[in-house]
Amino acid sequence: MSHLLPPDLPHYLLTITLTLLLPTTSLILTPKTSPLRYIALALTTYLASRFITPTPGASVIRTTLCGQLILITAQTAHFLLIRRLDDRDIAREIPHRAFFRSDRLWYAAELFVQPRGVGTPREVKNVPAHPGYYASRRSGTGTKDGDGKDGDRKDGAITVSRGTFLTRQFTIFIWQYLVLDIMQAAARQQAFERAGGGVSGGFTHINWFISAEKWVERGLTNLITWFVMTRILIDSNYRLVSIIFVGLGWDGPEKWPPAFGRMRDVYTVRKFWGKFWHQFLRGPLTGISNFVTRDVLHLPRPSILERYTNMFVVFLLSGIMHALTDRVQNIPFEYSGALIGFPITLLAIMFEDGVQELWKRFNPSTTKKGSSDDDVPPLWQRAVGYVWTLTWLGVASTWYLYPIYELPGELTMLVPVSLTERVGMQPLAGIVLGAGLVVGYLFKVEI
């Protein structure tokens, strides 16, 4: 079993604990302008950097832990040196518990664990609402289990009972785990069938001049990677953490809304990243980008230059973070396509904005007064948008995903314990398919 988990997992967990304690205690115990905050950021960066190294046998578990270290470091810069939160800010947000410093320390720690800021003044945009399943429990078979009825509303928000939340999260997590197990087996089989193996040249060796059939195959592979494998991988990790926090009573279910939005919203590249995809990086990266564009570059606000520079900085920072996690997976910086694959997203968004602006100018009669970005366009426009978005993701994602596809089979580790090796891929796939239909029906799963 020693090969199933990183051998230095305890060291990782200790480091994550230290990187969480340093900024948390600095936020509560130091003044806004204290030089100790710079020292805390330097120490947090040092602790995180010790693990951003190529590691033989690196797995998704190791990569996820390293990603968490990087995210905490970004949050440290955001909260301590840019927003400069302190003890009084936290006390104002939790007045009913502000008397005890331990409560304020715990609340501050949650700011770093919950980067979307759910339930705080810093909650990022487009955090998905809780699934309609909980509301249906209230009108249907909802029962009381000590935390109120499912679907009850407090201050306009749906409350969720702890028992119902944990049952749904745990069941879906088990199903997602089995899906990842099958995908791990399939990815390893493809890697072993490929001649050679390993990252050789990375994105610099991408062959862009291939047949239409090969492009369709490549595009579909990229889309499956985003919409199925990566989404399930991130979502399952998030569900597991939510099960721990809610199960141990550290948080209420309302603090753990879904990680992802609905696929029906991906009719623009902007909405794919800004509404459908997880928003875990939005808070810290937007805070840093605002600091760069407004306080460092002093760009006029509001202006087109400031808006697009802000987005470019966000995607550039995201590219840097993904390049660092690529390095953990034994993809050297010079071979990682993250620094191209993420920043070029700005070109797609600028193109979309340009097309939409031209449409408004030449078809003013179709533009409603007072319309907003949340207004749903006609079906034919969404159909065109879906084709455009999926085409862009299918092609442009090659920059980032190609080096990952070239990893050797032994590095494709999505789950620590595999049932596929014991049961077989086809029998397990049949079980997962049937179970997926049942789980989707019983818990009204929204995709």
Topology overview:
Elements: H1 9-29, H2 36-49, H3 60-82, H4 87-93, H5 101-113, H6 132-139, E1 153-154, E2 157-158, H7 162-193, H8 212-247, H9 269-276, H10 282-296, H11 304-328, H12 338-341, H13 345-362, H14 379-396, H15 398-405, H16 420-423, H17 425-442
Antiparallel strand pairs: 1-2
Averaged pLDDT, please? 86
Q: N-to-C terminal Cα separation, in Å?
A: 35 Å
Low-confidence stretches: 141-149, 152-156
The portion of residues forming beta strands comes to under 5%
Q: What structural category arises from helix and sheet content?
A: mainly alpha
What is the count of structural domains? 2
- Record the strand order, biggest sheet: 1-2
Backbone CA Rg = 23 Å
What do these coordinates show?
By secondary structure, the protein is an all-alpha fold. The chain folds into two domains: 1-113, no CATH class; 126-447, no CATH class. It contains 17 helices and two strands. A two-stranded antiparallel ribbon has the order 1-2. α7 (162-193) packs antiparallel against α17 (425-442). The chain is globular. The two termini are 35 Å apart. Mean pLDDT is 86; it is low at 141-149 and 152-156.
